[in-house]
Amino acid sequence: MDAKKLGLGFGLFSIGLGLVEVAAPGRLARWLGLEGSKLARNTLLAFGVREILAGGMLLRGPAVSTNMWNRVIGDAMDAGALGLALRSSNRKGAVAGGLAFVGGAMAADWLTARALDKQTGRTFPRAARA
Questions:
Q1: Which of 74, 79, 92, 111 has its CA 20 to 30 A from that of 65?
Q2: CA angle, corner 65, sides to 112 and 69, nearest 5?
Q3: In the chain, which ranges are continuous DSSP H helix?
Q4: What angle do the packed helices 65-88 and 92-120 form, to 10 degrees?
Q5: 65-88 vs 3-23: helix crossing angle, rounded to 10
Q6: Which residues contact 82 (CB under 8 A, 6 or more apart)?
Q7: Where exactly are the structural domains of the chain?
Q8: What's the DSSP call for residue 25?
């Protein structure tokens, strides 16, 4: 497995997903059965910005495992938000599908981050010394 290529691919995926969340938070909220919820729209918008930033960091450093661990943490935030949304959604199947998607993404992100840790021998890269 070439973890650096996976990191680059996850960076591109993050940017694409983030752009969708930023461009259509209301539509995504409706799809999740949370229409009319300003909180849901704002959360999706904020999570979209987070995804774009995470993707940019991965494009900048696809072999830096901390950038992949950032995605794992974001996946945990997404799962928590979807878990809360499950209580008030009128489309529980859509939310459950979102949770399944996030779970799969979290597993792939975690495996890639661990592979990068092993390739470099550390989670945090060393700063260049002048």
A1: 79
A2: 75
A3: 3-23, 25-31, 38-60, 65-88, 92-120
A4: 170
A5: 40
A6: 32, 95, 98, 99, 102
A7: 3-120
A8: H
Phi and psi based region of residue 81 (left: phi greater than 0; alpha: psi -120 to 50; beta: remaining): alpha
Does residue 114 surpass a pLDDT of 70? yes
pTM exceeds 0.70: yes
| Predicted local distance difference test score (pLDDT) of residue 126 | 59
| pLDDT band, residue 123 (cuts 50/70/90) | low
Residue 3 near residue 61, CB atoms below 8 Å: no
What are the Cα distances from residue 95, in Å, to 14, 44, 73? 20, 13, 19
Q: pLDDT for 78-111, tens place per residue?
A: 999 999 999 999 999 999 999 999 999 999 999 9
